[in-house]
Amino acid sequence: MATALAVSRRAEQVAAAPGRPRSDQAHQAVLKATRELLLRHPSDEVRIEHIAARAGVGKATIYRHWPTRDALVQELLLNLAGPHIEIPDKGSTREEMRAAVLNPIRALTKTDFGPVLLAVLTQVASNPRLAEQFRATVVRARRNTIAEVIKRGILRGDLRADADADVATELLAGPVYFRFIFGGALNRDFADRVVDTVLEGFARKKGVRPRR
Protein backbone atom coordinates (compact mmCIF):
# COMPACT_ATOMS: atom_id res chain seq x y z
CA MET A 1 0.00 0.00 0.00
CA ALA A 2 2.75 2.41 0.96
CA THR A 3 4.47 1.85 -2.39
CA ALA A 4 1.25 2.21 -4.35
CA LEU A 5 0.29 5.42 -2.60
CA ALA A 6 3.69 7.04 -2.23
CA VAL A 7 4.41 9.89 -4.62
CA SER A 8 7.25 12.33 -4.80
CA ARG A 9 6.89 15.53 -2.86
CA ARG A 10 7.87 17.57 -5.88
CA ALA A 11 5.20 16.02 -8.10
CA GLU A 12 2.38 16.30 -5.57
CA GLN A 13 3.16 19.54 -3.75
CA VAL A 14 0.63 22.22 -4.58
CA ALA A 15 2.11 25.53 -5.58
CA ALA A 16 1.20 28.37 -3.28
CA ALA A 17 -1.47 30.68 -4.68
CA PRO A 18 -0.47 34.36 -4.71
CA GLY A 19 -1.34 36.00 -1.43
CA ARG A 20 -2.58 32.75 0.12
CA PRO A 21 -1.15 31.88 3.56
CA ARG A 22 1.15 28.88 3.42
CA SER A 23 -0.68 27.12 6.28
CA ASP A 24 -4.00 27.48 4.45
CA GLN A 25 -2.41 26.11 1.29
CA ALA A 26 -1.15 23.07 3.19
CA HIS A 27 -4.55 22.62 4.87
CA GLN A 28 -6.35 22.51 1.52
CA ALA A 29 -3.68 20.27 -0.02
CA VAL A 30 -4.17 17.73 2.77
CA LEU A 31 -7.96 17.74 2.37
CA LYS A 32 -7.57 17.26 -1.39
CA ALA A 33 -5.09 14.42 -0.93
CA THR A 34 -7.37 12.69 1.58
CA ARG A 35 -10.32 12.92 -0.80
CA GLU A 36 -8.31 11.53 -3.71
CA LEU A 37 -6.95 8.62 -1.70
CA LEU A 38 -10.32 7.66 -0.24
CA LEU A 39 -11.77 7.60 -3.75
CA ARG A 40 -9.11 5.10 -4.82
CA HIS A 41 -8.33 2.91 -1.82
CA PRO A 42 -10.13 1.20 1.08
CA SER A 43 -10.43 3.62 3.97
CA ASP A 44 -8.59 1.42 6.45
CA GLU A 45 -5.55 1.36 4.13
CA VAL A 46 -5.25 5.14 3.89
CA ARG A 47 -2.88 6.32 6.61
CA ILE A 48 -1.47 9.67 7.61
CA GLU A 49 1.87 8.94 5.93
CA HIS A 50 0.11 8.26 2.62
CA ILE A 51 -1.87 11.50 2.89
CA ALA A 52 1.26 13.46 3.78
CA ALA A 53 3.16 12.06 0.80
CA ARG A 54 0.38 12.84 -1.65
CA ALA A 55 -0.16 16.35 -0.25
CA GLY A 56 3.56 17.08 -0.26
CA VAL A 57 3.71 17.93 3.44
CA GLY A 58 5.19 16.35 6.53
CA LYS A 59 3.17 14.29 8.98
CA ALA A 60 3.83 16.96 11.61
CA THR A 61 2.01 19.50 9.43
CA ILE A 62 -1.07 17.29 9.34
CA TYR A 63 -1.04 16.79 13.10
CA ARG A 64 -0.82 20.55 13.62
CA HIS A 65 -4.18 20.87 11.84
CA TRP A 66 -5.91 17.65 12.95
CA PRO A 67 -5.27 15.57 16.09
CA THR A 68 -6.25 12.31 14.36
CA ARG A 69 -6.98 10.90 10.93
CA ASP A 70 -10.63 10.58 11.96
CA ALA A 71 -10.82 14.32 12.61
CA LEU A 72 -9.34 14.97 9.17
CA VAL A 73 -11.89 12.69 7.49
CA GLN A 74 -14.74 14.39 9.35
CA GLU A 75 -13.67 17.83 8.16
CA LEU A 76 -13.44 16.50 4.62
CA LEU A 77 -16.98 15.08 4.81
CA LEU A 78 -18.34 18.34 6.20
CA ASN A 79 -16.56 20.36 3.49
CA LEU A 80 -18.03 18.15 0.77
CA ALA A 81 -21.54 18.19 2.23
CA GLY A 82 -21.48 21.84 3.33
CA PRO A 83 -22.55 23.49 0.06
CA HIS A 84 -25.64 21.24 0.06
CA ILE A 85 -26.84 21.81 3.63
CA GLU A 86 -28.10 25.39 3.90
CA ILE A 87 -31.75 26.06 3.00
CA PRO A 88 -32.65 29.75 2.53
CA ASP A 89 -36.09 31.13 3.31
CA LYS A 90 -38.08 30.42 0.13
CA GLY A 91 -41.39 31.66 1.51
CA SER A 92 -42.82 28.16 1.02
CA THR A 93 -42.68 25.36 3.56
CA ARG A 94 -43.16 22.74 0.86
CA GLU A 95 -40.28 24.09 -1.24
CA GLU A 96 -37.98 24.27 1.76
CA MET A 97 -38.85 20.68 2.67
CA ARG A 98 -38.15 19.64 -0.92
CA ALA A 99 -34.76 21.30 -0.59
CA ALA A 100 -34.18 19.33 2.63
CA VAL A 101 -34.58 16.13 0.57
CA LEU A 102 -32.95 17.26 -2.68
CA ASN A 103 -29.86 18.74 -1.00
CA PRO A 104 -28.56 15.42 0.36
CA ILE A 105 -29.53 13.74 -2.92
CA ARG A 106 -27.30 16.18 -4.81
CA ALA A 107 -24.48 15.85 -2.29
CA LEU A 108 -24.55 12.05 -2.40
CA THR A 109 -25.02 11.59 -6.15
CA LYS A 110 -23.43 14.65 -7.77
CA THR A 111 -20.32 15.26 -5.65
CA ASP A 112 -17.50 13.29 -4.07
CA PHE A 113 -19.37 13.33 -0.74
CA GLY A 114 -21.22 10.14 -1.68
CA PRO A 115 -18.21 8.03 -2.72
CA VAL A 116 -16.12 9.29 0.21
CA LEU A 117 -18.95 8.55 2.65
CA LEU A 118 -19.25 5.03 1.26
CA ALA A 119 -15.49 4.59 1.63
CA VAL A 120 -15.61 5.34 5.36
CA LEU A 121 -19.10 4.00 6.13
CA THR A 122 -17.89 0.70 7.59
CA GLN A 123 -15.61 2.56 9.98
CA VAL A 124 -18.39 4.99 10.92
CA ALA A 125 -20.65 2.03 11.74
CA SER A 126 -18.04 0.15 13.77
CA ASN A 127 -16.20 3.03 15.45
CA PRO A 128 -18.34 4.81 18.10
CA ARG A 129 -15.97 7.78 18.25
CA LEU A 130 -16.04 8.27 14.49
CA ALA A 131 -19.82 7.85 14.44
CA GLU A 132 -20.18 10.50 17.15
CA GLN A 133 -17.95 12.89 15.21
CA PHE A 134 -20.06 12.34 12.09
CA ARG A 135 -23.24 13.09 14.06
CA ALA A 136 -21.61 16.17 15.58
CA THR A 137 -20.61 17.60 12.19
CA VAL A 138 -22.58 16.62 9.08
CA VAL A 139 -25.70 15.34 10.85
CA ARG A 140 -25.88 18.25 13.29
CA ALA A 141 -25.42 20.82 10.52
CA ARG A 142 -28.26 19.29 8.50
CA ARG A 143 -30.43 18.91 11.60
CA ASN A 144 -29.95 22.59 12.52
CA THR A 145 -30.89 23.69 9.01
CA ILE A 146 -34.05 21.57 8.94
CA ALA A 147 -34.94 22.85 12.41
CA GLU A 148 -35.05 26.36 10.92
CA VAL A 149 -37.31 25.09 8.12
CA ILE A 150 -39.69 23.63 10.72
CA LYS A 151 -39.67 26.85 12.75
CA ARG A 152 -40.53 28.91 9.67
CA GLY A 153 -43.28 26.45 8.77
CA ILE A 154 -44.79 26.78 12.24
CA LEU A 155 -44.63 30.59 12.08
CA ARG A 156 -46.36 30.55 8.68
CA GLY A 157 -49.11 28.40 10.14
CA ASP A 158 -48.28 25.54 7.76
CA LEU A 159 -47.12 23.09 10.43
CA ARG A 160 -48.38 22.06 13.83
CA ALA A 161 -46.83 23.93 16.73
CA ASP A 162 -45.53 20.66 18.17
CA ALA A 163 -43.76 19.57 14.96
CA ASP A 164 -40.55 17.81 16.05
CA ALA A 165 -37.47 19.07 14.17
CA ASP A 166 -35.39 16.01 15.10
CA VAL A 167 -38.01 13.63 13.75
CA ALA A 168 -38.47 15.82 10.68
CA THR A 169 -34.74 15.59 9.95
CA GLU A 170 -34.85 11.80 10.07
CA LEU A 171 -38.03 11.62 7.98
CA LEU A 172 -36.75 14.01 5.30
CA ALA A 173 -33.07 13.04 5.02
CA GLY A 174 -33.16 9.48 6.38
CA PRO A 175 -34.87 7.89 3.35
CA VAL A 176 -32.26 9.50 1.07
CA TYR A 177 -29.37 7.82 2.90
CA PHE A 178 -31.28 4.53 3.06
CA ARG A 179 -31.76 4.46 -0.72
CA PHE A 180 -28.21 5.64 -1.34
CA ILE A 181 -26.82 2.71 0.65
CA PHE A 182 -29.30 -0.02 -0.23
CA GLY A 183 -30.50 1.08 -3.66
CA GLY A 184 -33.49 2.88 -5.14
CA ALA A 185 -34.22 5.90 -7.31
CA LEU A 186 -33.09 9.24 -5.92
CA ASN A 187 -34.95 11.85 -7.97
CA ARG A 188 -37.47 14.68 -7.73
CA ASP A 189 -40.46 12.34 -7.74
CA PHE A 190 -39.01 10.53 -4.74
CA ALA A 191 -38.39 13.89 -3.03
CA ASP A 192 -42.01 14.92 -3.60
CA ARG A 193 -43.30 11.66 -2.14
CA VAL A 194 -41.15 12.06 0.97
CA VAL A 195 -42.32 15.66 1.44
CA ASP A 196 -45.98 14.67 0.97
CA THR A 197 -45.64 12.04 3.68
CA VAL A 198 -43.98 14.42 6.15
CA LEU A 199 -46.47 17.21 5.46
CA GLU A 200 -49.37 14.83 5.95
CA GLY A 201 -48.07 14.09 9.43
CA PHE A 202 -47.01 17.61 10.41
CA ALA A 203 -49.39 19.94 8.55
CA ARG A 204 -52.15 21.81 10.35
CA LYS A 205 -55.68 20.99 9.23
CA LYS A 206 -55.97 24.25 7.33
CA GLY A 207 -52.28 24.56 6.46
CA VAL A 208 -50.29 23.17 3.58
CA ARG A 209 -51.81 19.95 2.31
CA PRO A 210 -49.97 17.12 0.59
CA ARG A 211 -49.77 17.29 -3.22
CA ARG A 212 -52.38 15.15 -4.94
CATH architecture of the largest domain: Orthogonal Bundle
Cα-atom radius of gyration:
20 Å
Give the count of structural domains: 2
Structural class: mainly alpha
Q: What fraction strand?
A: under 5%
Which residues sit in consecutive blocks of at least 5 with pLDDT less than 50? 1-20
Q: Count of DSSP E strands? A: 0
- The succession of helices and strands, N to C, reads HHHHHHHHHHH
Report the principal-axis shape. elongated
* CATH level-1 class of the largest domain: Mainly Alpha
The fourth-level CATH homologous superfamily of the largest domain is Tetracycline Repressor, domain 2
Largest sheet: none
- What is the percent of helical residues? 55-70%
Mean pLDDT: 86
Span from first to last CA? 55 Å
The CATH topology label of the largest domain is Tetracycline Repressor, domain 2
Number of helices: 11
What does this structure look like?
- The structure is a single chain.
- This protein is mainly α.
- It folds into two domains: 21-67, Arc Repressor Mutant, subunit A; 79-202, Orthogonal Bundle (Tetracycline Repressor, domain 2).
- Helices cover 69% and strands 0% of the residues.
- The chain has helices spanning 2-5, 9-12, 22-38, 48-55, 59-65, 69-81, 93-110, 113-126, 128-156, 165-182, 188-202.
